[in-house]
Amino acid sequence: MFILTKIADLVQIAPAQFEKHSRVAIEDNINAKYSNRVIQKIGLCICMYDLLWASEGLIGHGTGLVNVNVEFRLIVFRPFKGETILGRISSATPEGINIRTDFFEEIFVSYKELPESCEFNHNAQLWTWVVDDDRMYYDKNEPVRLSVIDEVWHDQVPESTAEDAVEQAKKISPYSIQGTMMKEGLGVCIWWDDTEE
Amino acid sequence: MKVLESQAALLTNHEVYTFLQNQAREYQEQKRRGPGNLETLRRELLQYLRSEENPLSQEPPTYDDESVAKLLKRLRPYEIQKGEMVMIMNLRPVNIPMLNAVLEDMEERFTAEEQEDIVAGVEEVLGKFPPKAQEEGDVMQTTENGS
Description:
DNA-directed RNA polymerase III subunit RPC9 (chain B), DNA-directed RNA polymerase (chain B)
């Protein structure tokens, strides 16, 4: 689920932060910029893992900012294709099931990726897996296991500077995951919990 | 910003969990707070890693810094890919269907005895949830009595 990504960047430390130790100021700056942000084709950044290198600080003209070149490693959320992960059902539609984790909401399992003989109940807005005469429910909030089959990237650059274009671009999530539950062991966790005995 | 190496390493959930817990403790000791976006994400991520289906939620903890090495040693006879090993660490498959969810083409690659031995090895090294006590007045059942 998690990887380390090595990044080079310029950190600018404002005079108000001069009272902090340089190491703390650099770490806070990096985390303020990256934490909980998506980098396209990299993943959702969690936080700085370690600082590998930092240059001498150079004071910029006119601004009083101290510029420091840094290299560091970030912890990044980026489940690989084929990886099985845990999530929770957040909602369901005839198109499939939306799944979230506590920190990431954009996971979707299409109806095509549910086991055969699944049906959608429009009144209850939930999917049901019918096995012989048993009905098993994909209830909201149930913990599930799913396997990642694809990822969708969207850099939120608006088509124009018009306000509605900017709003429109922000509506599409920058990173979303598509999964499957069509394999034994995937789907609602409790279905597979007690099969051992 | 320049990406120097997009995937320098894979981390297990336990490594991330330990890192974030240590960070939270250090910040507290130094009486400092990280940026708001980090504080929020750390709280949510720790909550996820401690959620009930997650093996890291078990008390007392069954994972430690030696777990990866012990698991690799125990499962050495089997050709298990690196990514699969990370999933085994993260999800702790303690029965055959769960193992099937983390190993590609399990049936073709491993005999029934081998599958049993892998599952047994996972339990030996990483532990297993104690059997769930039956809860009184099961809520999930009562909502389904429409028919």
